[in-house]
Amino acid sequence: MRRIAPISLVIIMCAFLLWGCGKDEIPEMKPQVVKTQQVGASSQVLEGTYTGVVRGRYETNLSFQVGGKVLERNVQLGDMVSAGQVLMTIDARDVAERSNQSDAQVASAKAQLDLAQANLTRYQQLFAQEAISAMVLDQYQTAYDSALAQYNQAVAGAAQGHNALDYTLLTAPMSGVISAINVEAGQVVSAGQPVASMVQSNELEVEINLPENHLQDVPLGKTVQISFWALKNAKVEGIIREVSPMADGVSRTYKVRVSIVNPPKGMYLGMTANVKCTEADKGDLGELLPISAVYQTGKDAQVWVVDKGDNTVHLKKITFENTGNNSVRVKGLSLGDIVVTAGVHKLHEGQKVRLTEDE
Question: Considering only the top CATH level, what class is 61-88+172-199?
């Protein structure tokens, strides 16, 4: 039994030697697979393209100056109206009664004023004859002045009542389009309650909403390019006219208004528009990359760029700005560059890699 163990050991060693001699070459290791993002091809590219809606520059909320029951609504949503056109009417009976009451107060005040005037004239004559003292004359002068003030007050109230009769008709302050209707016939409204909205159609513009980290893309006065899907992507120039100083409380975005230099034919309120920064400014916008793509040694920030010819990686210097949400805005890249976005500390210069889409 002692001789069998060494013989078995020799046989096993010979088998390993024979197996090793049968392999002529060691299998080549496959290049490392890397996750990448192409500059200009990602949905996160900051091209400055935003979706908006065509709106009127001047939008007005319309309301009655007096309250009452709506009797007639003469317009529909989307109707074109002209200045002075009657849009709605409310019941004027109560307003008319108040106007009549004011006229009666004017008549009463006029009678009191006439009496005070007659008394004052009579006592002025008596004073000239030295039949009464100056104190008595002063009393009648004061009574006349009070009656005159009450008369003027009554006249002003009557004028206000007459104006209120006109306020029972809601008229268009200018030509435009009815963009909203908030009441129907039979509804009781109060003074100042918005009952309709209208937009002046002679000056249209585009409204877009931007997140806070994109506000620097649209400074006031910047020239942008606007296209309209409904007009076969017709393109016109626009100018950033207004940027809201405060974010919306719900969406946390900022409203931006873009005036249109030469509105295309067939552009109407409510159309969808795309607002895009001009090509000359695109290079300044940068690329949004995950923060894991940045390879920093000392003060230099770099990224690994894949050579399209031989799939080797090379470092390229960049500048970046942290935008939050584990992402950075990178500048210094060229359109079409393929950037490694994960595992950057495991690579070395000239290393051959495989892209995830090649798998």
Answer: mainly beta
How far CA 134 is from CA of 125, 126, 145, in Å, comes to: 12, 10, 16
Instruction: Tell me which H or E stretch contains 339.
Output: strand 338-340
Whether residue 28 is predicted with pLDDT greater than 80 in this model: the reply is no
Q: What's the CATH code, domain 93-167? A: 1.10.287.470
Instruction: Tokens 């709506």: give the residue.
Output: 70
pLDDT score for 43? 42
The pLDDT of residue 282 is 43
Q: 223-228 and 272-277 as β-strands: parallel, antiparallel, unpaired?
A: antiparallel
Which strand (E) or helix (H) includes residue 154? Answer: helix 134-167
pTM of structure: 0.51
Tell me which of 3.40.640.10, 3.40.630.30, 2.40.420.20, 2.70.98.90 is the CATH number of domain 33-46+285-358. 2.40.420.20
Residues of the chain with CATH 2.40.420.20: 33-46+285-358
Q: Is 273 exposed, middle or buried (0-12, 13-18, 19+ CB in 10 A)?
A: buried
Burial (Cβ within 10 Å: 0-12, 13-18, ≥19) of residue 300? exposed
Do 195 and 183 meet the contact criterion of CB atoms below 8 Å apart?
yes
Q: Which amino acid is at 349?
A: E
CB 338: neighbour CB atoms within 10 A? 21
Query: Which residue, among 207, 218, 209, has the nearest Cα to 252 in the 3D structure?
Result: 209
